Amino acid sequence: MKRFLLVAAAVGLLLAIGFIGHEGFAAVAEAFTAVGWGLAAVVLLRAVQIAGAGLGWWCVFPDARPPLTTCINVRFIREAINTLLPVAQIGGEIAGARLMTPHGIPGGLAGATVPSVVSLDATEIVTSLAGRLVSTMLKFARNSSRFSSRTSTPSRRICPH
After folding, report:
1. pLDDT reported for residue 158
2. Which residues contact 96 (CB under 8 A, 6 or more apart)?
3. 2, 45, 81, 150: which has the fewest C-beta neighbours closer than 10 Å?
4. How many domains does the chain have?
């Protein structure tokens, strides 16, 4: 199995290099340059968010907890499965529960934690939406203050009173 994973990783890396080469290394580098450090910030923040979800999952387990690193690693795997595979956004949870069994967690207990973790994910969505709402409101307030300052300047020139 270990050899298969190494071969699969090598094939995946070669495919990625091939796809990038097909599009043009310069074009891909230009796209990354255009995005700048913002891309690295987004990736880092998403990794922190997923690791936090792994911490939340670790907290849900009762006395017989797996190692925290296991919960975080499995959480990344769950996220990858739900994002990359067309399994109706539930395959990652099933795979995550199954991946906990080699770490001494009974299948029933691992499966029982999934609804709690899904509700934690719902909390994550609500928090993200609230953050986006606040960001949009701040942007709107900033733009409206710019608009009012732009309209007041010409009117002062026409009516200096």
Report:
1. 47
2. 74, 75, 77, 78, 110, 114, 117
3. 2
4. 1
Does a structural domain hold residue 31? no
Range of the domain at 47: 38-146
Q: What is the 3-class SS of the chain, one letter each residue?
A: CHHHHHHHHHHHHHHHHHHHHHHCHHHHHHHHHHHCHHHHHHHHHHHHHHHHHHHHHHHHCCCCCCCHHHHHHHHHHHHHHHHHCCCCCCHHHHHHHHHHHHHCCCHHHHHHHHHHHHHHHHHHHHHHHHHHHHHHHHHHHHHHHHHHHHHHHHHHHHCCC
Say if 75 falls within a structural domain: yes
With bands split at pLDDT 50, 70 and 90, how would you rate the model's confidence at 18? Answer: very high
Measure the CA–CA gap between 69 and 114, rounded to whole angstroms: 17
For the ranges 19-23, 35-39, 66-70, 144-148, the lowest mean pLDDT is seen at 144-148
Residue 152 lies in a domain: no
